Amino acid sequence: MPQVVLKPRRAQPFFSRHPWVFAGAIARTPEGLAPGDEVALVSDQGEFIARGLFNPHSAIRVRLYSWQPDIPLDAAFWRTRLEQAMTLRRDRLQWWGPRTGCRLVFSEADGLSGLVVDRYDDWLLVQCTSLALYLRRDLLLTLLRELVAPRGIWLRTEKGIREAEGLETADQLLWGETPPQPLWIEENGLVFAVDVVAGQKTGFFLDQRVNRQAFLPYLVPGRLLDVCCFTGGFALNAARDSRITAVRGVDVSASALELARRNASENGLADRIEFLKGDAFKTLEALGGGGERFANIVLDPPKLARHGAGVEEALRGYHGLNRMALALLEPGGLLVTCSCTGHVSRAMFEEMLGGAAHSARRRVQILESRGPSPDHPVDANCPESSYLKCVFARVL
Predict the structure, then answer these.
(1) Cα-flanking dihedrals φ and ψ of residue 221, to 5°?
(2) What domains sit in the chain, N to C, each tagged with a CATH number?
(3) Which of 20, 28, 8, 24 is CA-nearest to residue 62?
(4) Measuring CA to CA, which residue among 343, 191, 355, 157 is closest to residue 262?
(5) Is the dihedral of CA 340, 342, 343, 347 positive or negative?
(6) Which candidate, 366, 326, 369, places its Cα nearest to that of 345?
(7) CA angle 198, 201, 203 (to 5 degrees)
(8) Measured between alpha carbons, how far is 167 from 228 in angstroms, rounded to an integer?
């Protein structure tokens, strides 16, 4: 097997099972390696570390999968990894069956770096963020069909990933029937319309599933404002609560709001929720200028930085959003504030919240500092797989 040799003193992260080998850590690679070739990663002393897949077009030059020298990356290997992922969702979480919305495979956290698979009812949505795995798509599709028996499998590829990995592919049906637009899932006793073909991300924010239920005991009687509400996940859960007198959802996407209104109608909550199109920053500023106040505010903005160089700007953005939201909350009110920016750590996010509280002259008590739902596990050796922060806070 071809060997990729590391530079001196660069081996420890990979002995510790971090799956990403960047080009800067590599001393030399054999000539003639093609995208997707299986390689052995070795130290500068020639010691075996792991098996992985090579991509000369990516900054992540090798993605590692097996730390056993005698276990090749063959069909049996990929089946075992997929079965392990399915066992968590089917047997432990019991998030399976009709109308289920669940992440079945979460890339590095499931030992399948570069592969994300979401289940929506009887359809699978696949994201390949690795050229090497995309080149093995026929095998992976066969295994997914055997393990899940879906009606169809749809591919989504983000533009930035295409460029980073050298992928030349468009969103398309990979197998079976095209998903209906929308299809429907059930969560916490509510039904939601999901557009897996054209919706944001993979069509629904599955990572907030447990948080959308966990924040309910903390609700304060009065009104709730849901900023960056997408299709109404937090808003609809709150609207069912008798303590909430009215709900207002705001999002910049007209198509997301169309689904949000449809969700409210399907759940018999249309008379309790108002959905408005608007920019998060401008909306909060206008509400503050108008003297409005809310008992509860949810902030769930999109990713504000895609690279480490954008962290400072992202933190300024979070500070501004949270400062304005804190000023709108009634004394004793609830703030649910979230960040899906992986480069912003939990410590950074909570420090930002403290700074926003100081700027708004409010006292903030963190009640819970949460992560994603358990179908989005975190690999202890890959901190990059921990990305979502969801803080429940009491504002005084």
Answers:
(1) -55, 135
(2) 3-66 (2.30.130.10), 75-176 (3.30.750.80), 183-395 (3.40.50.150)
(3) 20
(4) 191
(5) positive
(6) 369
(7) 55
(8) 30
Is 46 in a helix, a strand, or coil?
Answer: coil
Q: Strand 364-370's sheet: what is its strand order?
A: 273-277, 244-251, 222-227, 294-299, 329-339, 389-395, 364-370
Alpha helices by DSSP H, listed for 135-253, are 137-148, 159-165, 209-214, 233-239
Q: Annotated catalytic residue: which of 128, 228, 340, 382?
A: 340
Cβ–Cβ < 8 Å for 167, 262: no
Cα distance between the two ends of the chain: 62
Q: Is residue 229 annotated as a catalytic residue, yes or no?
A: no
Beta-bridge partner residues of 126: 117, 155
Strand order in the sheet with 38-42: 20-22, 60-66, 48-54, 38-42, 3-6, 26-28
- Per-residue tokens: 126: 């696949």
Map tokens 């963190």 to a residue: 366
Please say if the pLDDT value at position 148 is more than 90: yes
Q: Express each pLDDT in 246-270 by its tens digit.
A: 999 999 999 999 999 999 999 999 9
Query: What pLDDT, in 10s, does the model give residues 307-345?
Result: 889 999 999 999 999 999 999 999 999 999 999 999 999
Cα–chain center distance at 151: 24
Q: At what angle do helices 137-148 and 75-87 cross, to 10 degrees?
A: 40
Q: What residues contact residue 190 under an 8 Å CB cut-off, 6+ apart? A: 236, 237, 240, 263, 267
How many Å apart are CA 261 and CA 277, to the nearest integer?
12
Query: Using alpha carbons only, what angle is made at residue 391 by residues 319 and 199, rounded to the nearest 5 degrees?
Result: 85
Residue in the structure block whose two tokens are 């992440």: 103
Query: Each residue of 79-116: pLDDT tens digit?
Result: 999 999 999 999 999 999 889 999 999 999 999 999 99
- Cα–Cα distances in angstroms (integers) from residue 40 to residues 28, 29, 61, 119, 134, in the given order: 12, 10, 12, 33, 20
HSE (side-chain half, CA atoms, 13 Å) at 42? 16
Quote the CA–CA distance of 317 and 125 in Å, as a whole number. 31
Q: How far apart are CA 41 and CA 31, in angstroms?
A: 15
